[in-house]
Structures are given as C-alpha cells and as structure tokens.
Amino acid sequence: MEHNMKKMVKLRVALGLMFVFSVAGCKTPPKMTDDTLVTSTVDGVAISHRYAVKPPAQFSPVNETYRALYPGSVMSQPGYGGKVVETLKTGESYTVIGQVENNWLALGEPAQAAAEAKPDIATTAVKDAAQPAAPQATVQLTGYVPFRAVVKSALYDQTVKADQPKRRVRSSSKKKTCVAVNGDSTACQNSTNGTWIIN
Predict the structure, then answer these.
(1) Burial classification of residue 108, based on how many CB atoms lie within 10 Å of its CB (0-12 exposed, 13-18 middle, 19 or more buried)
(2) Spatial separation of the C-alpha atoms in residues 137 and 145, rounded to whole Å
(3) pLDDT tier for residue 95 given thresholds of 50, 70 and 90
(4) Exposed, middle or buried, 112 (CB in 10 Å: 0-12/13-18/19+)?
(5) What is the four-CA torsion angle of 6, 8, 12, 15, rounded to 10 degrees?
(6) Is the pLDDT of residue 115 over 70?
(7) What's the CA angle centered on 126, arms 124 and 127, to 5 degrees?
(8) In angstroms, how far is CA 12 from the centroid of its own chain?
(9) How many whole angstroms separate alpha carbon 194 and alpha carbon 20?
(10) What's the mean pLDDT in 124-144?
C-alpha cells in the first residue's frame, strides 16, 4: 500500500511538472489596442488600418486627391455611429482611397507594396479569404467622411465660389416721382418726407 502511495505521489509530481512546462512554453497573443495596425482584405484590396477603425463591408478604389469643404469629422466607421478619429481642416488636401458603403469616402494613404509593411501587423480577412502569393499593394486607411465633406481638388475653387452668396447690385433706393411744370422746370417728390421740390 505504501508502495502504491509513493507511485501516486510521483505520478502527481510528474503530471504537475508536465503541465507547468507545457504552459510555460506558450506565448500569449499580443494585446490589441486602438493603435494596433491590422490588415483586412475587402473586395480584393488589402487595407491596413488601426484596430479602432473598422474595415468597410464594400470597397471601390478611387485614389484621388480631394480637398475639405468644411471642418468635418473623420469617423472610425462609415456612418455617424462611430468615434471621431480626427477633424478635417477646411481647404486641406486629403487622399480618398475609395468609396465605401452608405456613400461615404475612405481617407488614407495611397497603395504601398506589402514588403514595406511593418512586420508586427496582424492580418484578418473580411472578404476574399484567399491571399495571392505575390506581394499585394496595401492602402493605409485613416477613417471615413461623408460624401459631401470633400470635393475633387480640381473642382474645389469652382465649388467654393458657387457656394458663396451672390452679391446683388442695389438700384436707387426708391423711384423718384417727377412731373414737368410750365415746360422748362420739373417738380420732384422727396421720397423721405413726401414734399415736392421744384427745379
């Protein structure tokens, strides 16, 4: 009986040590913060973005320079339900990398080769889970703005000019009422007090 007890104690110690060694070799996954860079694939385009910025459900590439019409908010998702990531500066140039759902525009940096990407970037697939073997161009997503917050750079001056109120030329404040008197002279009514003046 004592011999069995010793075996049981040795077995417990051996199992305990095996458990400790197996757990000690495991690494915990890196903690995801709002500033952690992740890469998502949407409609065949690799999009690198902060963890706080949600990837779009659909994406059509634009890659053009636009200018801000007003100090609008850059949101963390395409809609007003997200968090404000930054604020547009009126007249500043921004790169619109694509159009997403709800007629919103995605702001960011143009495409870069995947080889230039940072090595600690986590990868998730939103759509099109199959990754090509060749290096894929990655666009850097900053956030989303409503469609009317920005306008193409070439149309900015024209849009701002059209948005300004039109200046109306003032005509004389009131019509003068004049009548001819005895052929040579005229009598005009004063518009402020209604009296007649003979010239």
Answers:
(1) buried
(2) 23
(3) very high
(4) middle
(5) 110
(6) no
(7) 130
(8) 58
(9) 107
(10) 62
β-bridge pairing 150-152 and 73-75: unpaired
Helix then strand count (H, E) for the chain reads 2, 13
Torsion of CA 88, 79, 85, 127, to 10 degrees: -120
Q: How far does Cα 106 stand from its chain's mean position?
A: 5
- Cβ neighbours around 50 below 10 Å, total: 18
Ramachandran area for residue 181 (φ above 0: left; ψ -120 to 50: alpha; else beta):
beta
CA distances from 32 to 38, 49, 89, 144 (A): 9, 13, 30, 21
β-pairing verdict for 59-68 and 93-100: antiparallel
Q: What does residue 170 show for φ and ψ, rounded to 5 degrees?
A: -85, 130
Q: What is the pTM of this model?
A: 0.61
Q: What type of residue sits at position 95?
A: T
The one-letter amino acid code at 190 reads: N
| CA 48/CA 122 separation, integer angstroms | 10
Kindly give the pairing relationship between strand 45-50 and strand 138-146: parallel
CB of 52 closer than 8 Å to CB of 74:
no
Q: How many CB atoms are closer than 10 A to CB 117?
A: 18
Cα–Cα distance measured from residue 37 to residue 46, given in angstroms and rounded to the nearest whole number: 13
